[in-house]
Write a structure and sequence with these properties.
By secondary structure, the chain is α/β, with parallel strands linked by helices. The chain contains 4 helices and 15 strands. Strand 14 and strand 15 form a beta hairpin.
């Protein structure tokens, strides 16, 4: 059964989707609070957008959820819904009802640089087990990726820490994508359509490594920057 609470990283912070299995709003918010309490370090200080689908949520219900999140040092800034009731409640509380409010937000400011950059997301915390990050571009994590955590990226994956979870770089078929970490020992590593697992070698030397596709297989080498 699919998880009724889906969490993914977006440009503006985190997007939490509450799916259909919740019949009561109180049940949905209680389950969300429980999920947050299990991973407080990950959620602390986050900006959160909530997608409730077509569920009608009244103003006092959203206000109560906002208070629950505030007590956990989380900022609720947007509520996404096709319900007019929910949209009206969100507006009354000063919340956005869409992730991008104007086309100007899609533009990337000009940089005074001779080098061109690529789109990606930056996560300044450790990813605990059970957390999933999906992104079309590159993903950089300033922290560890624990067993049970998952990163799927259309581009490269860079972990400035220990990589122990599942990662899939070049998920859209880019065989030139790479996975790099200060300690590269993932449960499972995929690049485009290629897949491998870390050898069970406790004697291995811990050092920065980078994995890439070479001659039809994934190869890990010392990462020299």
């Amino acid at each position: 059964m699919d998880d009724p609470i889906a969490i993914k990283g977006i440009r503006e912070g985190l997007l939490v989707t509450l799916k259909d299995p919740f019949s009561e709003w109180a049940e949905a918010t209680a389950r969300l609070a429980q999920r947050i309490d299990e991973r407080r370090a990950f959620f602390k200080g986050a900006r959160l957008a909530l997608d409730v689908g077509d569920r009608p949520v009244r103003q006092h219900e959203l206000d109560n959820l906002k208070a629950i999140l505030t007590r956990r040092e989380i900022t609720l800034w947007a509520v996404i819904s096709s319900s007019a009731t929910t949209q009206g409640a969100a507006h009354n509380l000063g919340l956005e009802t869409q992730l991008v409010t104007g086309t100007e937000q899609l533009e990337t400011p000009a940089l005074n640089s001779d080098a061109e950059g690529d789109h990606g997301i930056f996560i300044n915390r450790t990813l605990r087990g059970g957390l999933k990050v999906h992104a079309n571009g590159h993903v950089t994590v300033m922290g560890d990726v624990n067993p049970g955590a998952e990163i799927v990226a259309g581009g490269n994956i860079l972990v400035w820490g220990k990589l122990r979870g599942n990662v899939h770089a070049g998920a859209n078929g880019d065989e030139a994508a790479v996975v790099a970490a200060l300690d590269l020992a993932p449960t499972q590593l995929r690049i485009a359509g290629y897949i491998t697992v870390s050898p069970n070698d406790k004697r291995r030397k811990v050092q920065p490594e980078i994995a890439s596709v070479q001659q039809g297989r994934i190869v890990a080498e010392v990462w020299k920057g």
